[in-house]
Amino acid sequence: MSNSLIFIVLLSDIIALGVGVFAGKYIFKKSFDQKEKEAQDRAAEIVRNAEQSAENIKRDRILEAKEKYLRLKTEFEEESNKKRVILQTNEQKLKQREQSLQQTVEQSKRKEAEVETLKTNLTHQLETATKKREEAEKMLSQQVSQLEKLANLTADQAREQLVDALKAEADTRAGSYVKSAMEEARLTATKEAKKIVIETIQRTAAEHAIENCVSVFNIENDDIKGKIIGREGRNIRALEAATGVEIIVDDTPEAIVISGFDPVRREIARLSLHRLVQDGRIHPARIEEVVAKTRKNIDDEIVEIGERTVIDMGIHGLHPELVKMIGRMRFRSSYGQNLLQHSREVAKLCATMAAELGLNTKLAKRAGLLHDIGKVWPEESDLPHAILGMELAKKFKENPEVCNAIGAHHDEIEMTSILSPIIQVCDAISGSRPGARREMMESYIQRLRDLENMAMSFDGVEKCYAIQAGRELRVIIDADNVSDEKAGMLSFDISQKIEKEMQYPGQIKITVIREMRSVAYAR
Question: Which spans of this chain does the record mark as coiled coil (predicted)?
Answer without folding.
Answer: 40-153
